Amino acid sequence: MYLLRAIALCVFPLAMAFHNHGSSGTLVDFSDPKVQGHLDALVRLAQSCVIKVRATPKDVRAYFTNSAPVTRSGQCFAACMLEQSDIINHGKVNRELLIHQASLVNGKNSRVVRKLNSISRLCLDSIEGMSDRCQLASTYNDCLNENMLEFAFPLDIAEEAVRKMPFHLIQPNLPQEMRTY
Fold this sequence. Notes:
This protein is mainly α.
C-alpha cells in the first residue's frame, strides 16, 4: 500500500476489490489492472515479511484467509504487513491512509469505504493500551476481518499468494509438498 508502496500494498484495498455478488459468490476480475497491481504488490510485500519474521505457511495462510493467527510469528507477520504498508507506524494506526487506499479501488463514497470508516474506528478501541507491536497489529487486523467478512479474500487468491512465498529461504529442509501448507 504505499503510494506505490502505499497504494499497492494495503490488504483491504485488494480484498475490497473483490466484490461480493450475492449467492453467486465472490467475483474476481483478474483482468482489472488495479486488482492485478494490488495483488502483485501485496505478494511482494508478503514475501519480504515471510523472510523478516520467519513466517510459516500456516501463518501466511491464516493472514490471507482472514483468520486470526495462532502463533507469535503469525502475529508478527500481520505487524510486518501493516507496518510496511504504513497502515501502522510506531504503534499508531493510520486510518486515513487505510481509508484512502480503499477509496482508490472502490471510490470515496462506496459502501465499502463507508463501512471501513466506521469499523476502523471501532477497531481502534480493540487495541487501546497495547504496546506489543505484533499483538497490536494482529488484533487490529483481526478486528477489521471479523467486522468486514463480506470482503474476505477469495480462497483461490489466498492459496495462490501462499504458493508464491519463499518459505524455502527460511526453512531450507521443508519438503516440497509441505511448502504450500
